Amino acid sequence: MNIVDAIILGLLQALTEFLPISSSAHLRVVGELLGQDPGAAFTAITQIGTELAVLVYFRRDIVRIIGAWWRALPGLWHAASGQKSRHSGAALADPDARLGWMIIVGSLPIVGLGVLFEEAIDSALRNLWITATMLIVFGLILGWADRRGANTKTLRHMRWGEAVLYGLSQAAALVPGVSRSGGTITAGRLMGFQRAEAARYSFLLAMPAVFGAGLYKLFKGDSSGVSVGAVPTLVATIIAFVVGYIVIVGFLKFVQTRTFVPFVLYRIVFGFVVIGLLLGGIVPALPSFVS
């Protein structure tokens, strides 16, 4: 992969990671058109760049959540061991501490399923017929959920069962075309969370999983057989960080006053474009090269 291709794919990663349109689907399709399949490892590592943008943008929220979670640990320990103390009753009373634990709980499904089905995720599930189908089907589900959702709840109203559902919806995005943000935002809207709150939690929930996956792939390598140089990967990751930050700002402003309908329509159109490319023989269903 040359630097120009890396710049294009880094921009693509940043522009699509936070929107409910599946960054992995775009990287797969555009990578094929460029003659450069980025591979699952490249995708996971460049996602670290976009998640660093999340870390910077939400730094105050993150520091507050981690601080509250840490302060609640002694009380949780006392409550679990049956000891009574002035801390035990308030172990999960702090909304930020509860949110911290819910993010941990919500991260477990994608970690477990990601490890269990790693080989399939890196190979068979990258079939573009699957990707196109997921783009269309989950686009329709997002549209239905956004129309049906009550748009009343905030993250302070979240229950433990909802945290688990959020986690399962994020795990569904292990299949390219589903979209991690699309899955979690869809779940949030179905449960009645406000659009901006659903988007905000989608960002926060992604951080442990994306950082973990990126670091894991960085040290382990790509089992799909695709190899991308360190310099192109670094360039793409830096671009993903800078442009990703700009996208976060714009997206959160957008969902304050608008619905997700434009993203639904885009997903459906893009899904049929992918099908057209496949039927026309322009791109193969599975990666056709090693770079």
Automatic annotation (TrEMBL):
It is found in: Cell membrane. GO terms for molecular function: undecaprenyl-diphosphatase activity. It catalyses: di-trans,octa-cis-undecaprenyl diphosphate + H2O = di-trans,octa-cis-undecaprenyl phosphate + phosphate + H(+). Its EC number is 3.6.1.27. Pfam families: BacA. The chain crosses the membrane at residues 40-58, 99-116, 128-145, 198-219, 231-252, 264-286. It is a multi-pass membrane protein. It is an enzyme of class 3 (hydrolase). The keyword Cell wall biogenesis/degradation applies. It comes from the Bacteria. One of its GO terms (biological process) is peptidoglycan biosynthetic process. GO terms for cellular component: plasma membrane. Keywords: Antibiotic resistance, Cell membrane, Cell shape, Cell wall biogenesis/degradation, Hydrolase, Membrane, Peptidoglycan synthesis, Transmembrane, Transmembrane helix. Belongs to the UppP family. Catalyzes the dephosphorylation of undecaprenyl diphosphate (UPP). Confers resistance to bacitracin. HAMAP family: Undec_diphosphatase. Bacitracin is thought to be involved in the inhibition of peptidoglycan synthesis by sequestering undecaprenyl diphosphate, thereby reducing the pool of lipid carrier available. This is Undecaprenyl-diphosphatase. It comes from Buchananella hordeovulneris. The lineage of its organism: Bacteria, Bacillati, Actinomycetota, Actinomycetes, Actinomycetales.
